[in-house]
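Reagents: none. Just compute today. Deoxynucleoside kinase.
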Amino acid sequence: MHVAIAGNIGAGKTTLTNLLAKHFNWEAQLEDVVDNPYLDDFYNQMERWSFNLQVYFLNSRFRQVSQIRESGKDIIQDRTIYEDAHIFAPNLHAMGLMTNRDFENYKSLFELMEGFVAGPDLLIYLRSSIPNLVSQIHKRGRDYENSISIDYLSRLNERYEAWIHGYNKGNLLVIDVDNMDFVANPEDLGFIINKIDAEINGLF
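Predicted 3D structure written out:
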């Protein structure tokens, strides 16, 4: 069983991944933020480091997905390989923060990798408004995220919505998280768990 959580920066992916892993007794595969050698540089100088960062994430997630399939375990993954390729890299390119040459190189690499990976059995998309994302980002207080602009988040949100609208890799569950607090409010977490149970029961 491979479940993945998708969503913009600050949507609550990592928190929900950990809560669901605990509830369902799944193994959590988290995004490599702590050990990522490019994140600080990227947020300080996006144009210079965008390609390096995206290739690092692509490599990291390709390895993750390969291990998930080989392990035979029930795993919940924080963010998918598709989000980098369909949202983050094209957004950097559109904003002039990744050159045409680098973007074409990146796309070619992703298309090669995509032939070797399968989509998750269930994708959970956390839909959030910009004010909610901004509030969550400030709340967690990561230094390198202080420079993220509202324009950048808005562009990402638009791309997320377009991607989800055409998503065809497997089962999809969309959850609006604006008025949810699945940490402090057990009912909110219970609501999500019930939705997931219904999806999983439909899979088997």
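The chain has a mean pLDDT of 90.
Action item: order primers for follow-up constructs.
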